[in-house]
Amino acid sequence: MQMDARTTTSTMKACGVTRSFGSGDTKIYAIRNVSLELHPGQIALLMGPSGSGKSTLLAVLSGLLHPDSGNVLAHDQDLWAMTERQREAFRLQHFGFIFQGYNLFAALTAREQMEMILRWGNGASAKEAREKTDDMLGMLGLTNRAHLRPLQMSGGEKQRVAIGRALIKQPGFVFADEPTSALDWKHGQHVIELLRAAAHDQGSTILVVAHDSRIVPFVDRVLQLEDGILFEGSEKPVEMFGDNPVQTSF
Amino acid sequence: MSYALSTLWYERQRYLPAVLAVAFSCLLIAMQCGLLIGLFSITSIPIDESSADIWVGHPDVPSVDLGIPIPEGWQSYLALPEVERSEPYMEGFAYWKKSSGGMELVLVIGTRLGPDSIGAIKQLTPELRTRLSEPNAVVVDEGEFGRLGLKKVGDTAEILGKRVRVVGTVRGLRSLAGPYLFCSLDTARNVLRPPPGQCTFILAKCHNKEDAPKVVEKLKVYNKKLLPFTTEEFSMHSQLHWLFKTKAGIALGLAAALGLLVGAVVTSTTLHSATSASLKEYAVLRALGIPRWRMSMMVVSQSFWVGIGGIAAAMPVIYGIAYAGDLIGAKVLLPPWLLLGACVVTMTMAMLSGLMALRSLRMVEPVTLLR
Known about the structure:
The complex is a heterodimer. Chain A is an alpha/beta fold. In chain A, 30% of the residues lie in helices and 23% in strands. In chain A, strand 1 and strand 2 form a beta hairpin. In chain A, helix 3 packs across helix 4, helix 3 packs parallel to helix 5 (155-167) and helix 5 (155-167) packs parallel to helix 6. The radius of gyration of chain A is 18 Å and the shape is globular. Helices cover 49% and strands 18% of the residues of chain B. In chain B, strands 1, 3, 4, 5, 6, 7, 8, 10 and 11 form a nine-stranded mixed β-sheet that branches. The two termini of chain B are 35 Å apart. The model of chain B has no long low-confidence stretch (mean pLDDT 90). Chain A binds chain B through residues 55-56, 58-59, 62, 64-65, 88-93, 95-97, 99-101, 103-108, 112, 116-117, 120-121, 149, 165-166, 169, 177, and chain B through 3, 6-7, 9-11, 278, 280-281, 283-291, 294, 366-367, 369-371.
């Protein structure tokens, strides 16, 4: 499915989202009154220093962490007005995740890690799961590595399997937390290109949380979070972030 | 291959303790029961080795070796069309005074000795039966010689002041309590001295063995007066009496329960730790919206395969130990129902362990993956 990367149809909208931890004197606000829109076919990068609330925002937007206040609309449905079961079903249908660690089952092959999602999540037949997995393995350049278990794969290969696991069910939204942090730049670049292709070719809405400023040229949009407050950069910022992060102009 | 089985095979080192624990439980249950059945089958030897189809005793008779005197005239109750013939059976405990000094409790069993005798054990050859027709002649198991203070066939001893002589031996008929003394009805009466006209059981043979249950049904109208059994029923009745009387059943239950407990704890702990080690992977699945029951099924499937693996490992060992036991004289009976029962109990234990290990899945929380 080819989508216009610059489409303006909003598929995810967060309004006034706040999330704190602790209580009383020890209460800390991880994110404050954050509002944003994410668009289909775009890959957005959320940056910010450690402890700025990036992961908390990602967790709230992806339906994994309940906000104190505010709402998150995905496909015009309020994630946090749903029951736990409804949210789980929504995640199953629409969300894909890539986490910092690879978190692959040690006993399963690259192929099984992906097939499992289709068979357990979508109730796909063995044949259907196999065919779709073959396509995904091909797209990831892992056809010859399909039979390998995590211990036999390089870090880059493992992360590609993790990406395949996130994309195999063709989700509308993909959330990636530091997907390149454990990789050298060559493999990191490959990973971000895969995500970019998923956004541009499949029309997925992709939000990447990362520290690595080398990713910036590959994304459509940069969001900056500092002390829980979101600043939105201009689309396609040209400034690189150095040791002292610079907020891009609005 | 299922994901559960793939995981089990790939991480077999991790799951080995659980498989061994299940195998241990299965082995313990099968061997305990097999030994016990083997042991208590000894108590019904006089029944199992006779040619009788029907046994009739006193209503309170607990076991074949604890017979209560009944009138020989009760044979008239067995004058039924299905019954070919009947005969009295004399049995009772007595003290055997060794010629070298010392006493030993023995079980005297007196039967008719003719070729068509119903009560005589099958091991009594025509030659032995001829010798037993002499007054106060007895036959014992050759393995009981030491216990009875005997050195050879022809040796004598005293029972209640009557001198008895060993005229031959049989094999494989050692008893649990006092040694069996096989003899004629007259010899038994002579040494046991029952009231006149009394015996211990009435035995009958049917024209067709299949008619035995029907005859027993007919005799049940006299239930308050006498107790009728088919041979199989009486054999079981005698074995169960000793099983419960000796509290061996309780000991068996406790030992088996202990084995199961050890198996359950090890299996559950192994599955729990294996699941805990994959919490992050399960958390990814949860984030992706995979329902929790899918993961629960994975753990339960693993417990199923651990159970199958354990039983498969236990079976050859069970047969090996039973064979070895047989060689040293410990009778281990392993009927199919016993093995099936041990497998069912062990599998249930393994599956329950899987269910107990499910609590580890409660710790799966996808948000912890976001650091």
